[in-house]
Amino acid sequence: RTHLARERSVLGGQRTMAACYRTIYARARTGLALIRTGFSFASLGLGLLHYFGLSLLSLFDVILIIAGIFMVVDGLLWYLPVRKEQAELPSCPMPQ
Q: Is this model's pTM higher than 0.85 or not?
């Protein structure tokens, strides 16, 4: 009976670690999605500004560019700490 309780404790600890890893990787995915979306917004704003030139609607283009830059910066703030944390984690041994 003690052996089974110990095994349940070990399995519970492994599930807890797996949940932590899932949270870490979800934050990284969120950061990467923000970076990707930010580059898309900034590129769209630059493309519209280049295609239509300066006009009254250029304010919309500039807002898109600024929003894209903010999204990229925010995505980096989400992703880089996760990347640093991931580098500090012990690597899993390769199965043979």
A: no
